[in-house]
Amino acid sequence: MPGEKILLVDDEPDIGEIVSLYLTGEGFQFRQAADGSGALQMVRALSPDLILLDVFLPDIEGFELCRQLRAETDAPIVFLTCKDTEMDRVIGLSVGGDDYMSKPFSPLELVARIKAHLRRNRMLRRPEAEPAKTSHLASHSIRVNLLSHDVYLNGSLIELSAKEYQLLTYFMRHPKQVLTAEQLLRKIWGFDHGFDSKTLQVHIGNLRRKIEKDPSKPERIVTLRGSGYKFCEDAEAI
After folding, report:
1. CB neighbours of 220 closer than 8 A, spacing ≥ 6?
2. Cβ atoms of residues 58 and 15 within 8 Å
3. Total domains present in the chain
4. How far apart are CA 95 and CA 160, in angstroms?
5. Percent of residues, the chain, with pLDDT higher than 90
6. For 160-213, how does the pLDDT look when each residue is reduced to its tens digit (9 = 90+)?
7. Are strands 99-102 and 136-139 parallel, antiparallel or unpaired?
8. Which residues does this entry mark as bearing 4-aspartylphosphate (predicted)?
């Protein structure tokens, strides 16, 4: 939607110029903060609709800043950084990031991802046409309160990120169905075809660590090589 505010947290002026050129050309409002302190001030003052975040900042590591930003806003956070090992992605998505892009990056792909995240966020905030018919989902040891978004495993409350919660509830609503990576990226992130599945793989790995007895041998969210994923426990609406 034109006019939505994008905040770039990066101390490189050249990156800011490129991102600004493409985003303002699409009708977005663009702001840049060069450090973590400035980013927190801008988030509180401007309430950006999406945040682009580098890991290397003058005053704070981007991963720690992401944790702090998550306490201030539920806007999508997309890491945009040259740190691109698998562990970097795992950390970035575990501390509250919604997506992870590495530098050098394609400005056109960045714009497409931003639009997808904003589109998905608008859908999640859209009022329901009618009240939900169920307030809970349950699957053996997992119970989800759809009103409060609380998730319980064996009766104990567990903490999930927004994307982990969306993945889990989507899996539970479609038990024993083969769900492709493309389906999940489209339903959870709003991405169409053409995006790699690394972000999805990391989020599923993080979710498995929280709900599986042995994440290295998952029994609930099973990978079907060449096909996708399947949630193997029967779920019921309550």
Report:
1. 139, 142, 208, 211, 212, 231, 232, 233
2. no
3. 2
4. 10
5. 70
6. 888 899 999 999 999 999 999 989 988 888 876 556 678 889 999 999 999 999
7. unpaired
8. 54
Element (H, E) at 232: none
For the stretch 86-104, what's the b/e string if a residue is b when 16 or more beta carbons lie within 10 angstroms of its beta carbon?
A: eebbbbbbbbbbbbbbeee
**13: enclosing H helix or E strand:** helix 13-25
CATH number of domain containing 212: 1.10.10.10
What are the tokens at 139? 């699957």
Helix 162-173 and helix 198-211, axial crossing angle in degrees, nearest 10: 80
Q: Which of 144, 140, 148 is nearest to 213 (CA)?
A: 140
The H-or-E segment that residue 171 falls in is: helix 162-173
* pLDDT, tens digit (0-9, with 9 covering 90-100), for 44-77: 999 999 999 999 999 999 999 999 999 899 899 9
Q: How confident is the model at residue 129 (pLDDT cuts 50, 70, 90)?
A: very low
Q: Which residues contact 71 (CB under 8 A, 6 or more apart)?
A: none
| Distance between CA atoms of residues 164 and 206, nearest Å | 8
Q: In whole angstroms, give the CA distance from residue 92 to residue 113.
A: 17
Same domain, yes or no: 106 and 16: yes
Query: End of a domain among 84, 106, 125?
Result: 125
Domain limits at 182?
Answer: 136-237
In degrees and rounded to multiples of 5, residue 118 shows phi and psi of: -70, -40
C-alpha distances (whole Å) from 170 to each of 39, 66, 78, 146, 229 are 33, 25, 22, 12, 12
Q: Residue 105 is encoded by which pair of tokens?
A: 């990056």
